[in-house]
Specification:
Elements (H helix, E strand, L loop, with lengths): L6 H21 L8 H26 L1 H31 L4 H32 L3 H18 L12 H9 L12 E4 L2 E4 L1 H25 L5 H13 L1 H8 L9 H17 L8 H21 L4 H4 L19
Antiparallel strand pairs: 1-2
Helix pairs in contact: 2-3, 2-8, 2-9, 3-7, 3-8, 3-9, 3-10, 3-11, 4-7, 4-8, 5-7, 5-10, 6-7, 10-11
Amino acid sequence: MLTESVWPWVGFNVFVLAMLALDLGLFHRKEHAVSPKEATLWTLVWVSISLAFCAGIWHQGGRGPALEWLTAYVVEYALSVDNLFVFLMVFGYFRVAPQHQHRVLFWGILGAFVMRAVLILAGTALVAKFHWLIYVFGAFLVFTAVKMLFAKDDEDVDPEAGFIVKMSRRLLPVARQGDGSRFFITEDGRRKVTPLFIVLMVVEATDLLFAMDSIPAVLGISKDAFIIYTSNVCAILGLRSLFFVVSSLMEKFHLLKVALGVILGFVGVKMLLEYFYKIPIGISLAVIAGCLVAAVVASLVFPKPVELAEGPEAGKQPEPPAREQERG
């Protein structure tokens, strides 16, 4: 373990909460649509903070833990790209205004901290006690990789048909219409949730599903709960700003999904081979970074055909089915 003391955990979480409070309370107090330029700047800020933290781990724990942390961070950040595509689809489907998207992602990430902390602590404890689970996780990642590589790009996902949305509309009093970025309003004398709150729940559920892939992946890189947790948190801290960057470039780097599938498959095979041969962490980092760079370069060299990227239906928002808002 990198550390047995509770204070690094406390200090890290206090710092994260302070940065989030500064972000929402100062820099994004006034709601606005985040421009690609602003998003790129914030992405660089979060990446710089993360790399500084990695340097601190190198100083305290040495080269090995630092490389483990950096590899886990790169894997989590890379896998987040696929998550962002789903966020884009959800926001487009529910027609969330650009100036409200940052707020949804902000509270979604706070929920992600809690969920991932529980999953990471449980996962590392289980692997420490039952080492054979590492091979189960490895097989799961290989299966997920194959499924991702052979999935059709044009598969439609209907958020309205999802379990979370159906149960929310059945169990919660949902307002007929929203009120800006508010999650709760008073309507007809009753306290109700707004449609934006339903979107937040969909974002939370999506992050939980993606965590089922990413956490087993980083368990194949490190068994240290502190390394796994902090690398995950640092990656999702930059997820909001990365979202607004990706939203403007989503068609350009169309081969990233292939790279993500290869990365998941590589980590899964690495876990399956652990008993026979432990792949050095430096090689793992090189393979993962190489896949990402190759996907970006290949996407630029072999751009998506115009008829697919800009066809007659491109950019057209799907018409949502009749909602059950009148039940509100």
